[in-house]
């Protein structure tokens, strides 16, 4: 076996332990961990946010891919392998590709997690966890660096880091114009605005939120930036894939399939 090829069970064991997938609470249908196995050997990692049909159809035809995603393909529960699910499973098997999913375990990981990576790239200092989800803290809050002193500067920085247009970020100006403490929880965490305010944040970054969260932000006195559920969760899978390359020598690439949401 060449140095750039590794047994799937070894990689799964490592990922399960590194991400603590058996310890971190999550939705029952997240099914964190290996969702579909292949013939047993991995030669490359393909990172993507979602295990969508578009993602699977874009996998290499060569055998040995590990598709590493944040949102797996079993969210609709215990259902027959037919129709949409059959097409996805068949697509993976035809390409001899394995599927590994990490949802909340990837969100809160202290090194390669969505929140940790985004906080580091923004340059937040003295970060502290906040934001309870199923009994565990999932978000990070920290001091804004000098170059992120305004709402506009924060929005521009987030857009640049995520590779999206500044117009793609919705800013709710509920807080002060001068930014001092930023909290963030990637994905669909608009419901955590009150927790961000309680953590002393004057600005909160997440992916999306419901209609009423506009009033939550305005009445709680906190700026809220909605940068897109998809966009905010592109950073974790890429960091994890890079980590696997550094540890196992596996080449990796990121497949971008933005939803605009």
Q: Can you describe what's shown?
A:
This protein has 261 residues and is an alpha/beta fold. The protein contains ten helices and 13 strands. The protein has helices at residues 8-19, 53-57, 83-94, 104-107, 114-122, 151-162, 193-198, 213-220, 229-232, 235-248, and strands spanning 6-7, 33-36, 41-42, 44-50, 65-71, 98-101, 125-133, 136-143, 170-173, 181-184, 203-206, 223-226, 252-254. The protein has a six-stranded mixed β-sheet with strand order 7-8-10-11-12-9, with helices on both faces. A hairpin with a 2-residue loop joins strand 7 (125-133) and strand 8 (136-143). Helix 5 packs across helix 10 (235-248). It is elongated and about 55 Å long. The mean pLDDT is 97.
Spell out the key features of this protein.
single chain; 261 residues; alpha/beta; 6-stranded mixed β-sheet; 5-stranded mixed β-sheet; 13 strands; 33% helix
**How far is the N terminus from the C terminus?**
42 Å
Unreliable sequence segments? none
- Using the CA coordinates, give the radius of gyration: 19 Å
What gross morphology would you assign?
A: elongated
The tally of strands reads 13
The helix/strand series, from N terminus to C terminus, equals EHEEEHEHEHHEEHEEHEHEHHE
Structural class: alpha/beta
Question: What percentage of amino acids are in beta strands?
Answer: 15-25%
Q: Strands of the largest sheet, in order across it?
A: 7-8-10-11-12-9
| Helicity level | 25-40%
Major sheet description: 6 strands, mixed
């Amino acid at each position: 076996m060449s140095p750039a090829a590794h047994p799937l069970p070894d990689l799964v064991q490592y990922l399960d332990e590194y991400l603590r997938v058996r310890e971190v609470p999550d939705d029952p249908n997240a099914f964190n961990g290996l969702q579909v196995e292949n013939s047993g050997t991995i030669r490359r990692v393909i990172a993507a946010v979602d295990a969508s049909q578009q993602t699977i159809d874009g996998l290499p035809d060569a055998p040995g891919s590990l598709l590493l995603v944040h949102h797996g393909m079993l969210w609709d529960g215990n259902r027959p392998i037919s129709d949409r699910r059959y097409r996805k499973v068949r697509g993976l098997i035809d390409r001899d590709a394995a599927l590994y999913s990490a949802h909340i375990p990837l969100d809160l990981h202290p090194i390669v997690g969505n929140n940790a990576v985004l906080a580091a790239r923004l340059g937040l200092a003295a970060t502290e966890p906040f934001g309870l989800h199923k009994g565990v803290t999932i978000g990070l809050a920290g001091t804004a660096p000098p170059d992120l002193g305004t709402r506009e500067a924060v929005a521009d920085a987030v857009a640049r880091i995520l590779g999206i247009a500044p117009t793609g970020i919705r800013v709710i100006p509920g807080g002060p114009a001068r930014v001092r403490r930023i909290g963030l929880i990637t994905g669909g965490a608009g419901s955590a605005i009150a927790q961000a305010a309680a953590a002393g944040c004057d600005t909160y970054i997440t992916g999306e939120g419901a209609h009423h969260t506009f009033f939550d932000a305005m009445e709680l006195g906190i700026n809220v930036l909605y940068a897109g559920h998809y966009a905010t969760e592109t950073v974790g899978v890429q960091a994890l894939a890079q980590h696997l390359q550094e540890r196992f020598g596996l080449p990796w690439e990121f497949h971008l399939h933005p939803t605009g949401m």
